[in-house]
Amino acid sequence: MTSGLLDKPSQAQRSRLFFLDFRLYFLGSATRSDLVERFGIKEAAATRDLSTYREIAPNNATYDARARKYLINKSFSPIFKHSTHQALSSLTRGIGDDFLGDHRPMIECALPQDLSSPSPDIVAALTRAIHLGNLVEIGYVSTGSGARRRVIAPHALVNSGLKWHVRAFDRRRGTFLDFLLTRMSAVRAAEGSVAEHEVQGADRQWSRYVDLELVAHPNAENVEHPESIELEYGMTDGVRRIEVRAAQAGYFLRLWNVDCSTDHSCRGKEFQLWLRNHQTLYGVDNAMLAPGYRAKEAAYGRAQEL
């Protein structure tokens, strides 16, 4: 981010300058009307914002009188740091943390259908409990035991890539578990306080991190040109090293179809990655979610190395 001039505007104007920078960077144009519609400001204020932006970055845009808009210059250099994930979310969903209008994409896009969307009331009740450190009683329907009431101490939300869970201590089972938000029929405050063994710091699977070493799948029938996989996944010297929480490892490996077998035996074009250091999953509670993972083989491999 450019220093100096950017320190002078108010926080509200900085948000509008960020918006101008974003539109030029990702859409190639910006107008006074864009500011008026997005922030509900007067045209005079929008004009001042454009003037301020041009003062800060005089080489970023040129006014096209015929089109009545500012167009990006070849010499453009963003004055703010833009997150790729935030940018894609804004472009494809039109949603920001202060966005109150229609949730319309900024460009044409195709997004996957969402088959599991939790209720805002459920989410709000859980996030309040997490933030305030409270117990909640939930109505939960599991595939194994059916509908039951449970008292839990939630401490974090977990996204598996497809579904939202809440990480919590379950008083019925006496351990930390992940609960699917879409299987909750109700959430309400529970009496009592969270005990010391029920807080996030006592959740060993949450506190533990595992190092994953991902490589292109060794089997040619899965991957014919390993260099394409190395480029796609940003590998260095043929390896992508990632650190994840143990509580999240199984979800991550299943989402990306990472072959976690000791002998890279998973077959199919969907298995483009192999976990080279499969023994790192020893002791990870949800490792059984990882494709090809077999606990006994992993334990044996780890014993051979010790």
What do you see in this structure?
The chain is of the alpha+beta class and 306 residues long. The protein has 3 domains: 5-80, Orthogonal Bundle (Arc Repressor Mutant, subunit A), CATH 1.10.10.1470; 120-198, Roll (SH3 type barrels); 208-305, no CATH class. Helix content is 31%, strand content 23%. It contains 9 helices and 12 strands. The chain has helices spanning 11-27, 32-39, 43-56, 84-93, 120-132, 204-207, 226-232, 246-255, 295-305, and strands spanning 29-30, 61-64, 69-72, 136-142, 146-159, 164-170, 175-180, 184-189, 209-216, 240-245, 258-259, 273-275. Strands 7-6-5-4-8 form a 5-stranded antiparallel β-sheet. Strands 10-9-12-11 form a 4-stranded mixed β-sheet. Helix 1 (11-27) packs across helix 3 (43-56) and helix 2 packs across helix 3. It is globular and about 65 Å long. The protein starts with 10 loop residues before the first helix and ends with a helix. Residues 210-280 form the DNA-binding transcriptional repressor CapW C-terminal dimerisation domain.
